[in-house]
Each structure stands twice: as C-alpha cells, then as structure tokens.
Write a structure and sequence with these properties.
It contains 17 helices and ten strands. With 385 residues, it is an alpha/beta fold. The structure holds zinc ion (ZN).
C-alpha cells in the first residue's frame, strides 16, 4: 500500500470535515431529543413516552427499528406534536441548520409538510415563514461557529391528504424566499403519486422543481409513475430501481428500459442507506444497492432521511459506506458533486458551490497526507514547550 492509498481512505474526522451535500432530510425527523423534551414541557404536550432526553433518543431509535409501521409512525406524532407553534418551528429549524453545519454539510434541502403544523392555530404561510426564519438563524449561528451552510426548504404534501395543489401553490409563492421545491411523502401503498397530478402539472407550468418519494417500499411502478406521469425532477429514495437491473453470474450487467432511462437522463436518486435498513429495503450496508448504482454511474446521492429515528448523520452514513465499500475521499466527492448538481437552486449557484466550496474542500483533505510528516517532526521538536 502506498502512502497515497492510505491517505485516500478517509478517517472519521476527515469524513466529518469533508463538505457534504444533503438533499433528503425531514425536519420532523431530525429533532434533538433534549429539544423535544423542552418543547413538550413548554407546550404542555403530555404524550411523550420518555421525558429523559437520553432515554427518549433510544426510544425513537428502537421504535423505528422495530419493523412495526405503527410504532414508526408514532415517532412522528411526537415530533410533529411539539412543532405546533411559531417559536417551536423557528427553534427546530435553527437547530437543524446548526447540526447539519456541525456535521460538515455545506448545502442542504430540508423538507417538511406545512399542513402538519396547523394544530396550534398557525396558517400555512406562518409555518413556512417560521421555518425559513429558523434556517436563517441556524445559518447565522453556524457562521459564528466557523461553519458555512446554506439550507433550502422543500414543502411536502402528504400522499393521503387532498391538499397537494394548495401546498404546491404555497411552494411557488415562497420560491426565491427560502423554498426551493416541492415533494410528496407518506405511505406509498394505495396512494399513488398520480392522485396529485394537478399539483405536478401546476408546478411544471410554473417552471418549478419537485421530487417525489417513490421506489422505497414500492417497486418499479411507483418510480415509473413518478417520472413518466408526474414528471419528477428527482426520486425520493428510488432505491427499488435495482429491480430493473440484472447482474449475471459472469458479472455482466443488464439494465431494463426504466433503469436505462433513469441513468441516461441522469435522474438523481436520493438514497438513504440507514433508513432503508430500518424499513427492510436492504439487509445490510454492504448489500445496499448504492454500491452497484455507484459502480454503474447512476446519479446516486447519499442522504439521512430521518436523523433522529435512524440515529444517523451525513458523517455516519458515509462512515458506513466507507466501511462497506471501501470508499475514498474521491468517492465522497463524487457523491457530493452529484448531489450538488441535483440541487434545486440555480445552475450558476450549484456550479459555484461545486467549484469554489466542494472541490477545494476535498482537495484540502486529500492533500493532508503531504504535510503529516512535517507536522509530526515539528511536534517532536516543540515537545519541550
Ligand atoms: Zn423521506
């Protein structure tokens, strides 16, 4: 092994410091346990299963790990339950931006469903403005701590509800004001995205961007619908595209029509490895389709989905992938550039993020091995003082 190879395998600290880009993260899936406890107390929310932050954090992880959809959904009833006031939304959004920045994320698109935060009497507009205010506050605090992060919001409509067009219009009204796109989420079974065609058609007429949760639990038909009926710019998960890829015993790989389309058109896949392990979409990190999809040069990106429920962060996701697939800093850069290319902000800004932030960041990390010798030598000389 040459020193170059050693240097190219990122250490946990390098993984954390590497500039990362996150496209698929739920605001109500990333709260700090201590914040949930405090918000519950302030807002007289009495439904929490635990009031000790540490125990509560474990409860969330175990409920999400349980394999029971009911328990998994219960986790969100608690996070959403404490996010019903303006102050709570500002705080949660600010801490989200702060935590992501601390984790080395330089650009994030964080999504939430405004319609789930109206129980305390807020209007849809007030919800959006509170979250935007929180993101700006979090960006400011991150800057004070020496980090740079930019956070855009995606407005999510719930599949089972009938407000998709209203939320799409809301997303359009707040574009250029912190909202960068639209999303559809919720149970895939029984609620195909085609139920919300009016929302997608409206956004297309407005030249706006959207992603659709598809191909997570459900297979190819949901991916096909999201792309060919709804016109999604990106696939939320999309991991089941693997069902349209055949790997023969001699190593030959054959792509079906849909998988070919997804790769040829460079459709971004918002892959969320840890989340997929919890929902059973993959058995282990090593068996996660991301390995093959990366090898086949799909527009694959790495995401957290729900940091609290999956006990994860971008750093942890990459740590798992580095361990499972031997990824290097070059691989990390490839995923990060892929994600940045797929972001919903304007092309010139994406390009500047890639050329002026992401590539220089990786170049600096990759060159660290050159200076290691010098550092340890001077360390021994200076050992007296
Ligand atoms: Zn998701």
């Amino acid at each position: 092994m040459t020193s170059q190879t050693i240097a190219n395998t990122p250490t946990p600290d390098q993984i954390r410091r590497a500039p990362k880009v996150l496209l698929h993260d739920h605001l109500d899936g990333g709260l700090r346990p201590a914040t949930i406890v405090e918000l519950a107390r302030e807002n007289a929310y009495t439904q929490l299963p635990e009031t000790d932050p540490e125990k509560l954090g474990i409860w969330f992880r175990e409920a999400a790990d349980s394999g029971s959809l009911e328990r998994y959904l219960e986790t969100f009833s608690h996070t959403v339950g404490v996010m019903q006031t303006r102050d709570a939304l500002v705080r949660v959004a600010a801490e989200c931006a702060e935590d992501l920045a601390e984790d080395g994320v330089v650009y994030a698109e964080v999504r939430y469903a405004p319609e789930q935060h109206l129980e305390g009497g807020l209007s849809l507009e007030e919800v959006v403005e509170a979250v935007n205010e929180g993101f700006r506050e979090g960006e400011r605090r991150a800057r004070e701590n020496g980090h740079r992060i930019r956070v855009g919001a995606l407005l999510t409509a719930m599949r089972h509800a009938a407000r998709a067009l209203e939320i799409a219009e809301l997303a359009n009204r707040y574009r250029d004001l912190g909202v960068v796109g639209f999303d559809i989420a919720g149970a895939e079974a029984g609620y195909p995205p085609t139920r919300h065609l009016d929302a997608f058609e409206y956004l297309k007429r407005e030249n706006n961007h959207f992603t659709i949760h598809a191909g997570e639990a459900f297979g190819l038909p949901s991916i096909w619908q999201a792309l060919q009926w709804c016109g999604a710019d990106r696939l939320g998960h999309g991991v089941r595209i693997i069902d349209d890829i055949q790997v023969h015993e001699d190593g030959r790989v054959e792509l079906g029509r849909l998988a070919s389309y997804v790769r040829d058109k460079r459709i971004p896949l918002e892959l969320c490895p840890s989340s997929n392990l919890q929902t059973g979409a993959a058995a282990s990190y090593a068996e996660h389709p991301i390995g093959l999809l990366r090898r086949l040069h799909f527009r694959a990106t790495v995401n957290t989905d729900n940091r609290l429920m999956s006990y994860t962060s971008m750093t942890r996701e990459f740590e798992h992938l580095v361990e499972a697939f031997g990824y290097t800093l070059d691989d990390m850069q490839w995923f990060s550039v892929n994600a940045m290319k797929s972001a919903f902000i304007p092309f010139d800004e994406r390009l500047a993020m890639i050329n002026d932030v992401i590539k220089p960041g990786y170049a600096e990390l990759k060159s660290e091995w050159l200076f290691r010798q010098t550092a340890s030598t001077s360390g021994s000389v200076d050992s007296e003082g």
